[in-house]
Hints:
- By secondary structure, the protein is α/β, with parallel strands linked by helices.
- Helices cover 27% and strands 20% of the residues.
- The protein is built from 12 helices and 16 strands.
- The chain has helices at 2-19, 31-44, 94-109, 114-122, 133-138, 176-187, 230-243, 267-270, 277-285, 305-321, 424-428, 459-464; strands at 49-56, 62-68, 81-86, 124-128, 190-197, 200-205, 264-266, 288-295, 326-333, 343-346, 349-354, 360-363, 368-375, 382-388, 392-394, 397-399.
- The protein has an 8-stranded mixed beta sheet with strand order 1-2-4-3-5-8-6-7, with helices on both faces. Strands 9, 12, 15 and 16 form a 4-stranded mixed beta sheet that branches. It has a 4-stranded antiparallel beta sheet with strand order 11-10-13-14.
- A hairpin with a 2-residue loop joins strand 10 (343-346) and strand 11 (349-354).
- The longest helix has 18 residues, at 2-19.
- Bound molecules: 2-acetamido-2-deoxy-beta-D-glucopyranose (NAG) (3 copies).
- One 2-acetamido-2-deoxy-beta-D-glucopyranose binds next to strand 9.
- One of its GO terms (cellular component) is extracellular space.
- Its cofactor is Zn(2+).
Amino acid sequence: MSSAIATLFLSSLVLFSVVSALEVDFTYHRFPQMTNVLRQLNREYPEMTKLYSVGKSVQGRDLWVMLVTRDPDDEPLLKPNIKYIANMHGNEPVGRELMLHLLQHLLSNYGSDSYVTWLLDNTRIHIMPSMNPDGFEVAQEGECSGVQGRGNANNVDLNRNFPDYFAGPSKAPTQPETRAVMDWIKKTQFVLSGNFHGGALVASYPFDNIPANSPRNFRIVGSPSQTPDDDVFRHLAEVYSFNHKNMYVGVTCRDGSPPFPNGTTNGAAWYSLIGGMQDYNYVWASCMEITLEISCCKYPRHHLLPQFWTDNKNAILQYLGEVHRGVWGQVKDSNNNPISNATVKVMGRDFGFKTTDRGEYWRVLRPGTYTLQVEARGYDSLEIPVKVTKGVTIQNITLNPQTGTYHEPHNEQPAYQGYPSISPSQQENSGTSLRGLWPTYRNLLKQPKEAVIFPRLSYGVNYRQQPSHPLLNYNIHG
Length: 478
Ligand SMILES: *[C@@H]1O[C@H](CO)[C@@H](O)[C@H](O)[C@H]1NC(C)=O
Ligand SMILES: *[C@@H]1O[C@H](CO)[C@@H](O)[C@H](O)[C@H]1NC(C)=O
Ligand SMILES: *[C@@H]1O[C@H](CO)[C@@H](O)[C@H](O)[C@H]1NC(C)=O
């Protein structure tokens, strides 16, 4: 009898351990352990994930990315891509661990949590837990302000290694990790991005650098270097900060350093830097990226990780939803064929975003009335007024064959008068379009699908069904 019970008990234990989902523990995962977590989650959720590597570090470690979405192989028109990158500085690894917990949270709550379900049904979320796996391996737990492991194995700071809009190419040779990320974002059109760092508690937004002839030593300390999308960037930074447990309070990490009002800052207003990743994303990849500094101590002891997850979880989740905002659409010709490489500019915001191979464009905007300026080689240019409300406005655009003389889009990137204007093609040294090559890692471009957006839920219904999960909840902290 008792042995029968024991057998029953044992076999249910075995059964339980077989079916139980992976629990990511709150430790720092070395590279092989991190790889295992990613592989296990990928095995456990094959219909929701795709694990891929965008390249290798100097020492040959894979730069893993996990794509999380409903049906990763299915790419409905206009389903937006968003990315999180962490651990670009190897000695700032809190984000690296939070990304693993985020993966587990998204995957284990799909189908039960309505916000997570909505997110994964309608968004392609790419997560790179470590952009600098070599640096991480030599960094020291408990080291709050050191630099060991900050750079990659060639001791190059990857957040100074991107081509710079104001200053030109990086002085240091482009590192394999930087190159891999540049190639990745050239192939996949990301709409929104977050880059996790440590050493402060603030959400920082472009520009990080300042115009070249604005004398670094004489400029007023703390003056911002604003993009034409400053309102959008401020908003995005506030979404993170206001949904974080205490970032919005303006925590000072060091005695004597001034607090950040609202827990946000323009990058250059804090300190300017050359070759940063967020400026690159905005200028050359049509992607709105902000930098999230999430821990005063760069490499805090691992027993604090549960607290970091609790503090950041809501902010991390809410920020992902912000991609569903602004104006999206498809640019086509009068025969209904998509037009790739068309420039879609918002009047007054000189940075032109390009359409993908399927003619798609996305612009994250705050509610308001805007004029879209659409230009493509061989077609008449068009100006279209759009009204953006909370959420996404779909604005498809049909261009007619050119009647007049075509002029190359002027000011495709704003020419700051008197400042060197670096054209992307000079920078990139590559003949490929900055966008498009859509999508990617199977080297197989799917045929555009006709008139299908989000097959599972109709667009309007989708957004109206969201009242219990407002995309932005300013009142969350009372
Ligand atoms: C703080 O955020 C609020 C809400 O967006 C905004 O009205 C205010 O101007 C912000 N303050 C600063 C100093 O950025
Ligand atoms: C895309 O358009 C730009 C002009 O806006 C042009 O210079 C470039 O060559 C085009 N690229 C491709 C791949 O067609
Ligand atoms: C825009 O185009 C998409 C894809 O072609 C289509 O599904 C959608 O119904 C169109 N939306 C509007 C408002 O015309």
